[in-house]
Amino acid sequence: QIGLKGDIHIWESSGLHIMSFIRDAQKGGIAALTFSQDGNRLASIGMDDHQTLVIWDWRKGQKLATARNHGNKVFGIKFAPANSNQLITFGVKHVRFWTHTGGGLTWRQAKLGDKFRQDTVLSGGSITYDEADQWVLGTSSGSII
């Protein structure tokens, strides 16, 4: 959704009844959304100048944590399957790993090497192997990393 402020609507797919409505969730609109594996949390990326990340208790419409990303566009966000306190964001020239602890969010930049450092990451997914999440990312140049 694009606008001065973006709303989030969550509905049940088979009956289409509204389960949650979060008014004015993010400035500038909503760029990306993802649910945690257990379905209890929702993460959103705003279309503001900082591509702000918000973690929600979507049933209550309550913000659990907020953090500024950076100026580069974020194209995707995913929760780690094995740990709902960890997320990944990706987009123009970046991949960031996030950790949600208490009311805060911290991040670390992915080390992609010289070949992929300036690439744009368009999609991502993960698998869990030996209780650790392994990320697979697709870039605008056609590479899988």
UniProtKB/TrEMBL annotation:
Q: Which Pfam families match?
A: Beta-prop_EML
- Listed GO MF terms: microtubule binding
Q: Which residues form the EML-like first beta-propeller domain?
A: 7-145
Protein keywords = Repeat, WD repeat
Domain of life of the organism in this record? Eukaryota
Report the coiled-coil segments: none
Looking up InterPro entries in the UniProt record yields: Beta-prop_EML_1st, WD40/YVTN_repeat-like_dom_sf, WD40_repeat_dom_sf, WD40_rpt, WD_repeat_EMAP
Report the protein name in the record.
EML-like first beta-propeller domain-containing protein
Keyword Nucleotide-binding recorded: no
Instruction: Respond yes or no to whether keyword Repeat is given for this record.
Output: yes
